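lol ok so funny story. i was supposed to be doing the assay writeup but got distracted and ended up predicting the structure for this chain instead. priorities right. anyway since i did it might as well share w the group, maybe its usefull for someone
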Amino acid sequence: MENPFINNHNSSQVSLNQFFARIYGIVGIGVAVSALTSFLTINVFWEVAQNLVQRAGFGMLVIWFLPLILIFPMQNAAMKNKPTALPMFIGFSVMMGFMMSFTIAAYTASDVTLAFVSTAGMFFGLSVYGRTTKRDLSGMGRAMMGMLIGLIIAGVINIFLRSPMVVFVSSIISVLVFSGLIAWDNQKIEQIYRQNNGNVSNGWAVSMALSLYLDFINLFLSLLRIFGIMGSSRD
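and the output, tada:
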């Protein structure tokens, strides 16, 4: 059976630090593109965005789920080391930024800033831990993925319940889940590098960058909800 971690198609040998730098560079581009898109949507095109939502109606559900659908062809393009993988990732980041703008607009600038700074700090610390720990995090990673499925189901149910308590508890659990996934994904990067003997393609970099990007964005949104709820309770 072919090892899914091994893919030497159009790959070139690089150092482990170069592989990490390539991945983090792509993650940084994705986060920056999403942040810029959200900023422009809220501060420049907000009226246009609101009109789009009102006119689209149920069509917004398609737009909302489109990034989730695009993950699969994007990962497929990355695994086949296609040159379209990176442009697809950037386009995905734009769509995520647009969607996040509707969430971010509901919070104060201080809550958004605090959530982003906290996310960046946690991401850095957990990345270092995942890269340096001698402990095998694969079991924890699988557990986190199981919990993530539960969170998605709870989120769908809460669309109808509209319970603030469910949102708060789910957000706390989400912080734990995505914190674990950040550490695990960083450990997987080295595993992929070792199993490919350093012959890692750009596709692998895009694939792992997508995972870390999603970890970062979801951790940010979870912290933002927590800070927002805590801020409201103090008012």
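The chain has eight helices and two strands. The chain has a mean pLDDT of 88.
back to the writeup now i swear
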